[in-house]
Amino acid sequence: MVDVQNDFCEGGSLAVAGGACVAADIGDLLHRWSSQVPGAPTYDLVVATKDHHVDPGEHWSLKPDFVDSWPVHCKVGTEGAGFHPNLDPQPFDEVFFKGEHEAAYSGFEGRTTTGDDLAGWLRTRGVDEVDVCGIATDHCVRATALDSAREGFDTRVLTALCAGVAEETTAAAILEMTAAGVEIA
């Protein structure tokens, strides 16, 4: 699950329309999974990524261009950096933090609190297939899915559990992911 944080949902500093709904839908899926409800998807592991900015340099701007620079968001220690409350309870096996002192879009740039990177963490647990969902389809979901495929994982994006910033950039991201061998579901 990619970056389902308060700042990326309605009311946040970098809100994506539909973010809170996606958070609720993911929360429902995670609840059904962790409760082993019949018909729920089966996963061996569930991980999450978080934007985790302390001072990401030019990634933050008072005059953002919304391509390379953005308003202040997901600042460590703020409510905006927290997971959206629709995800409670949070049955994550691990959380990967990214972007402390730089821009970071892919979950594969993230690390655990003990320093493990996502690709290595997954490999040591025998994972070879990855489902990706979260916010935003055309930014961090895209980057995470592309890196997942580059790392050799069979990768699928669950679009019903994603929110994109804009129709045009979301459509372009889906085409790019498909061309890279990512399954779009």
Automatic annotation (TrEMBL):
GO terms for biological process: pyridine nucleotide biosynthetic process. It comes from Nocardioides exalbidus. Belongs to the isochorismatase family. Residues 1-184 form the Isochorismatase-like domain. This is nicotinamidase. It is an enzyme of class 3 (hydrolase). Keywords: Hydrolase, Metal-binding, Pyridine nucleotide biosynthesis. Its EC number is 3.5.1.19. The keyword Metal-binding applies. Pfam families: Isochorismatase. GO terms for molecular function: metal ion binding; nicotinamidase activity. The keyword Metal-binding applies. It comes from the Bacteria. Pathway: Cofactor biosynthesis; nicotinate biosynthesis; nicotinate from nicotinamide: step 1/1.
